[in-house]
């Protein structure tokens, strides 16, 4: 099926929220040691300062479903760009720990809300056959943002001698401004217009833009399916709550895929990759340069994941990723235990490759497609909140954990959690590729 250029452009625009997500998440890795030294932070204060953005992300993901439903996916994406812009400028100008934490918290709000609104918007405008690839562009841009942040930190660290960390953080304002401007040309989501706003005619107009080759009868059939799915949800009770037995399957999928995503150790390793390489005996600049290698590896294997997600399916990629996780993390634990430090970079790169092909490519696609229309924003918020609350906790405690536990024990723990993920995927997770959002309810056994 030929990809509609408008669908691609609008999906790409929305997915650029992921670029800012990735950049904002990792840019702190080049500045964290300078901040600790400048403000003489202890381990707990250091962890608290670094996790400020993540706590903003937790709040943003928790409340993100409300503006996404209330004001629409497009308007929410627009305000996400403004939050990123304010945060970047303020972070670069911060005069103390409290000011810095507040600025990073605001950026975190943007990250959290973006993980609700952006994948959901792309999922709702994409044809079923291409939904995995298009929604996966959000993850690709996260990875691209991570790579650009690593490279930006390296270049600024090499060229700027005074207050380099301020420039590392402030430079994010440029892509934030570009993203905000691009959001003005987005249309509203047709499923939001029809299912939430109850504006059938406006939804039909957008659907015709998304599917110009479709007949009037095909468009009306799609609209009728959306209306029928909402009516089926509302006919069971006057207003069926989100936390219901009927939605147990999608709720458990959203929670567990997000939970295991973070218990792989991915964010801890990304945030502190220079420090991990230094633990393996490398110099500071060498460690920072190898962190760029992480970004390149992530980008390459995210391409592979996006190519395969609509071919092999979500479940298969998660199984492949689980095997890669276990082998790479287990070998990394052995390398630190036996002091075979030379293989640590290869282990970390293999871990990143497994993540990019598996969890990285799948998480936002899977969460965005398993909930019915009326509860999709709340379901996306649940998955995002689960993802970020565990990310925040891990980032808060990781500096202290590194000081009190051997790296082999830390990587061994992450390896064990990925064994559990593999068992869950193999025994319980259904495949969702190539199924329309309205037909997904029957696939998951939640249609009344």
Description:
The protein is mainly α and 448 residues long. The protein has one domain: MFS general substrate transporter like domains (Growth Hormone, Chain: A, Up-down Bundle), CATH 1.20.1250.20. Helices cover 79% and strands 0% of the residues. It has 21 helices and no strands. Helix 7 runs antiparallel to helix 8. The protein is globular and about 65 Å long. The mean pLDDT is 88. This is Sugar and carbohydrate transporter. Keywords: Cell membrane, Membrane, Transmembrane, Transmembrane helix, Transport. InterPro entries: MFS_dom (IPR020846), MFS_sugar_transport-like (IPR005828), MFS_trans_sf (IPR036259), Myo-inositol_Transporter (IPR050814), Sugar/inositol_transpt (IPR003663), Sugar_transporter_CS (IPR005829), XylE-like (IPR047984). It is found in: Cell membrane. Belongs to the major facilitator superfamily. Sugar transporter (TC 2.A.1.1) family.
In a nutshell, what does this entry contain?
The protein is mainly alpha-helical and 448 residues long.
Q: Which structural class is indicated by helix and strand composition? A: mainly alpha
Number of helices: 21
Overall shape: it is globular
Question: Would you give the CATH topology?
Answer: Growth Hormone, Chain: A
Distance between the termini: 31 Å
Classified by CATH, the class is Mainly Alpha
Architecture (CATH level 2) name: Up-down Bundle
């Amino acid at each position: 099926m030929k990809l509609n250029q408008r669908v691609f452009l609008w999906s790409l625009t929305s997915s650029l929220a992921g670029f800012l997500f990735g950049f904002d998440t990792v840019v702190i890795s080049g500045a964290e040691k300078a901040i600790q030294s400048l403000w003489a932070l202890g381990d707990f204060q250091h962890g608290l300062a670094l996790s400020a953005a993540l706590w903003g992300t937790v709040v943003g993901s928790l409340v993100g479903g409300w503006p996404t439903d209330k004001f629409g996916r497009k308007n929410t994406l627009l305000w996400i760009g403004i939050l990123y812009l304010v945060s970047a400028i303020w972070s670069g100008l911060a005069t103390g720990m409290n000011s810095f934490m507040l600025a990073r918290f605001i950026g975190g709000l943007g990250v959290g809300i973006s993980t609700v609104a952006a994948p959901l918007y792309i999922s709702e405008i994409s044809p079923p056959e291409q939904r995995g690839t298009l929604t996966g562009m959000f993850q690709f841009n996260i990875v691209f943002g991570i790579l650009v942040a690593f490279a930006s930190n390296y270049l600024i660290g090499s060229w700027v001698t005074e207050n380099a960390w301020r420039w590392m953080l402030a430079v994010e304002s440029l892509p934030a401004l570009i993203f905000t401007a691009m959001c003005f040309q987005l249309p509203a989501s047709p499923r939001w217009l029809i299912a939430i706003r109850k504006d059938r005619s406006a939804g039909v107009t957008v659907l015709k833009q998304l599917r110009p080759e479709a007949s009037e009868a095909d468009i009306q059939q799609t609209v009728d399916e959306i209306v029928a799915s909402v009516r089926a949800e509302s006919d069971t009770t006057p207003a069926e709550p989100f936390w219901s037995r009927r939605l147990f399957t999608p709720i458990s999928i959203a929670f567990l895929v997000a939970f295991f995503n973070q218990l792989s150790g991915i964010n801890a390793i990304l945030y502190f990759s220079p420090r991990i390489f230094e633990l393996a005996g490398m110099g500071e600049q060498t460690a920072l340069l190898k962190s760029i290698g992480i970004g390149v590896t992530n980008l390459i294997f995210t391409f592979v994941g996006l190519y395969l997600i609509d071919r092999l399916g979500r479940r298969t990629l998660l199984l492949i990723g689980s095997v890669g996780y276990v082998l790479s993390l287990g070998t990394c634990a052995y390398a630190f235990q036996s002091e075979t430090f030379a293989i640590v970079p290869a282990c970390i790169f293999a871990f990143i490759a497994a993540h990019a092909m598996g969890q990285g490519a799948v998480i936002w696609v899977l969460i965005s497609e398993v909930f019915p229309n009326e509860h999709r924003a709340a379901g996306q918020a649940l998955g995002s909140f689960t993802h970020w609350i565990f990310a925040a906790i891990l980032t808060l405690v990781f500096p202290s954990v590194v000081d009190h536990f051997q790296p082999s024990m830390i990587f061994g723990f992450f390896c064990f959690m990925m064994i559990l993920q593999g068992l869950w995927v193999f025994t319980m997770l259904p495949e969702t590729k190539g199924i329309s959002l309205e037909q997904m309810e029957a696939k998951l056994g939640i249609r009344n």
